[in-house]
Design goal:
Jelly Rolls; alpha+beta; 26% strand; five-stranded antiparallel beta sheet
Length: 269
């Protein structure tokens, strides 16, 4: 199945990223549905010239558009600071002293770069072992849940949905983020009309993947410190650690509707 026009990629305004899109973007042969969720097929290949024309914003505006995913990068000192804090803390138990200050510094940077941040933000670091087809966990238990539109809520708030704003590679090794380049309303048009109008986002995604299992997903290579700024509402996305040698460590920034913004570290090893 051919890639449809939808969300496009560009370098976020006021950021500078070196690696060419031809080296960053790859596609696969579609999705696999199982009881746990929707997962990418493991047949990644380089994007063709025609696919790159569909995926890359032709003439980026001064600011990110509603249908654009922005590539960004953290200054090296912020990523280094994470590892300094992690070495002094018990990451597996979710305790990293000084993480609040680091998260505040990331938010301050993004505000300075004039990215569209909400009034309150929260940050989550997710650590995942190599060799996994997903880095998202189900709300309960330790099963991988596959592609999704949200991120884990902070501890004690399992009923809350956290809307992701950005995902950033904190590791020393390149990471891969998997993205479905279609918005939720585009999935509705491709699913059964009556059911789509009543279904939640996860049901719409599963219906689309069931009906179009060969629709290609986009893999985005993130070098150390690189990240993606996501549109609102966000696309379905996930991590992919198959082929990695070290643990995958990602910072996810998301909107926080609570009175006090919360910070957490999720050890998913």
């Amino acid at each position: 199945m051919s890639l449809a026009a939808g969300l496009t990629f560009r370098v976020a305004p006021r950021f500078h990223c070196r690696t060419a899109w031809t080296e960053r973007l790859c596609l696969n042969g579609g999705m696999v549905c199982d009881p746990a969720g929707v997962f990418p097929r493991d047949d990644w290949r380089p994007a063709s010239a025609d696919e790159l024309r569909v995926l890359i914003a032709a003439e980026p505006d001064a600011e990110l558009g509603a249908d654009q995913i922005g590539l960004l990068t953290l200054p090296a000192h912020l990523r280094t600071r994470w590892w300094e804090l992690a070495e002094q803390s018990d990451v597996e138990r979710g305790t990293v002293t000084g993480f609040d200050a680091l998260a505040d510094a990331v938010v301050e940077l993004f505000r300075f770069k004039r990215l569209p941040l909400p009034a309150r933000c929260a940050a989550t670091v997710v650590v995942s072992r190599p060799g996994q087809r997903s880095t998202r966990l189900a709300p309960t238990g330790s099963a991988l849940s596959g592609l999704g539109f949200d991120v884990p809520a902070p501890a004690g708030r399992r009923d809350a949905r956290a809307v992701p704003l950005a995902v950033i590679n904190l590791g020393d090794e390149a990471a891969q983020i998997v993205v479905l380049n279609l918005r939720v309303d585009a999935l509705e048009r491709r699913a059964d009309e009556g059911a789509a109008a009543r279904a939640g986002d996860a049901e719409r995604l599963r219906a689309f993947a069931t009906r179009h299992p060969d629709y290609p997903l986009v893999g985005v290579r993130l070098d150390p410190g690189d990240g993606l700024w996501l549109p609102t509402p966000p696309p379905a996305f996930d991590g992919w650690t198959i082929g990695k040698h070290d643990v995958d460590t990602s910072l996810v920034l998301h909107g926080d509707r609570s009175v006090a913004a919360s910070r957490m570290v999720s050890a998913r090893i």
